[in-house]
Amino acid sequence: MGRAVTVATCALNQWALDFEGNLERIFRSIDIAKSKGARYRLGPELEICGYGCSDHYYESDTLLHSFQVLEKLLESPATQDIICDVGMPVLHRNVRYNCRVIFLNKKILLIRPKISLANGGNYRELRWFTPWSKARHVEEYFLPRIIQEVTGQETVPFGDAVLATKDTCLGAEICEELWAPNSPHIEMGLDGVEIFTNSSGSHHVLRKAHARVDLVNSATAKNGGIYILANQKGCDGDRLYYDGCAMISMNGETVAQGSQFSLDDVEVLVATLDLEDVRSYRAEISSRNLAASKVNPYPRVKVNFALSCPDDVAVPTCMPIQWRHHSPEEEISLGPACWLWDYLRRSKQAGFLLPLSGGIDSSATACIVYSMCHQVCLAVKNGNADVLADARRIVNDETYIPEDPRELCKRVFTTCYMASENSSQDTCNRAKLLAEQIGSYHINLNIDAAVKAVVGIFSVVTGRTPRFSVYGGSSRESLALQNVQARIRMVLAYLFAQLTLWARGMPGGLLVLGSANVDESLRGYLTKYDCSSADINPIGGISKTDLKNFIQYCIENFQLTALRSIMSAPPTAELEPLVDGQVAQTDEADMGMTYAELSVYGKLRKIAKAGPYSMFCKLISMWKEICTPREVASKVKHFFRMYSVNRHKMTTLTPSYHAENYSPDDNRFDLRPFLYNTSWSWQFRCIDKQVNAL
């Protein structure tokens, strides 16, 4: 009869402009799909060139090389007898589109351009592409000669159409179109499309995965059908980690779930589903059927091919499963760890160096590296040859097999405690104990000689010697002396990153890791060009609150008991003199606000789009049990003064793993001035007027 269709989707760790590597991963996914009996294979958005090409999309080379890869795919025997759906940029009548190219047996069936472009947050698709605005319209696309020679076609359909096979009808969506209020799957489903496909380039954000899953399941819950989603995975060259989660859903229920975090470069899901289940599900939805009788039909591209076999009565079909979501602590443990591994192996460096202060932030960063080592050992144990080859190259040992995370940590991770006369013995001991428990190569050094030398140069030139405020100096002097210590630590971090392995008789250099959290960056509570200045920062998009919960997770799951004392200690920069041998400086006292308050300010400023006055209006309600309106006004004013005074620091912020939607990352996510009128005179006057009225 032909009712059981077998389809495949995948999550691929593609890399921007790595055409050779991208092609190899596409071929592997097709081979796996075919070996499992699939008759249709869906890949991620723009998988041929890699999603994150950015302004390289303007270059004709990117278009040329994409077509060269397509040529290799078309002419290969590996792509025969399976419908292949790949993503690449296409120039049509001098307009650049983000497209799906769908082909079968050396013939291109349809080029389907993206209709709704992602243009918020980290996405800038309207900068490079134009949305296809001609609904249910198809034009002729004249193929490049290199493709004509393979396909024998001069032109192919280009536009908003669906595929009609012998047994069913397929319609494509591309990433953002699933999230749009007028998603194409709605009208396509009413027009009889039974299988919806979505190729995505969707990145990880803490607590976001469920939203994507819910959207996919709801797409077929109301309208019936099969929904197949493919996604990019890994770090393809910037701050984002694409988190896989390829999935297949039918009639509102998940039937196949891919991993969200994994070191596997290629992951393929295959499901066999009964088309009659879709048809019977739709049959009793009268409102859907009434709407379907009036729908404007889509152009159909006829395909002389079936996704099912004629005699498939005994073919087993997939049953619904329960989606398992990671906790936020698991997401922090896995996402940044996978991102670090991709960055390390693709940058061809020999490991990481982290200034380990003994505080929560640097300790959380160290735990993420330790988690990365866990993931590497687990992947090798499970037979991942790619990870084993990368690990051997990184440690420069062709016989090495990573089995113990602590032993791998010793090879690829150097931690460094940089003491000064203002450092306490407690933080030194905490850093040393944590380094012992995770296995890192640990260095203890003292920066006092370098600090005295730098301050001495200033004294020789000016004839003045700055003092800390506890010794009678001004706040300007004290802040300058704190900044000197912080900046010297950055210089030393890079020196040791470049030469530590050389001193140990080992090849290669180390990447410097930063450890400023998202809240400190928002407030500007960091020294410009201090240890927050690094090569990359795995926690730069994570809040202090989430990091504390992650530390507790590591205590319980990695048995890192050294973290208990780190958790209980008050956060401190240790840049001011000790009092009776004890730390007198704390972060929250310095900032004039708590980390919990900072998270609230950050979410209101970015996610709720609140300026000073709107933030005040929201907080007098949110905090009515704990603050008077006048106290709220004072807090809001202080935050915006500090935020605007320090915003210039965001222009040099270390590239950080994007994990929060209130990140102040100035690169492309949070675009703001960095020279403000920090008095906010008009805005604060509006607040004062409201306070007086209340």
Automatic annotation (TrEMBL):
Top-level taxon of origin: Eukaryota
Domain CN hydrolase: 5-275
Annotated GO biological process: 'de novo' NAD+ biosynthetic process from L-tryptophan
EC numbers: 6.3.5.1
GO molecular function, one term: NAD+ synthase (glutamine-hydrolyzing) activity
GO cellular component: cytosol
InterPro entries: C-N_Hydrolase, C-N_Hydrolase_sf, Gln-dep_NAD_synthase, NAD/GMP_synthase, NAD_synthase, Rossmann-like_a/b/a_fold
Broadest EC class assigned to this enzyme: ligase
Pathway info: Cofactor biosynthesis; NAD(+) biosynthesis; NAD(+) from deamido-NAD(+) (L-Gln route): step 1/1
Annotated Pfam families: CN_hydrolase, NAD_synthase
SUPFAM superfamilies: Adenine nucleotide alpha hydrolases-like, Carbon-nitrogen hydrolase
Keywords assigned: ATP-binding, Ligase, NAD, Nucleotide-binding
Family: In the C-terminal section; belongs to the NAD synthetase family.
Oligomeric and partner information: Homohexamer.
Family annotation (NCBIfam families): nadE
Protein name: Glutamine-dependent NAD(+) synthetase
Native source species: Myiagra hebetior
Taxonomic classification: Eukaryota, Metazoa, Chordata, Craniata, Vertebrata
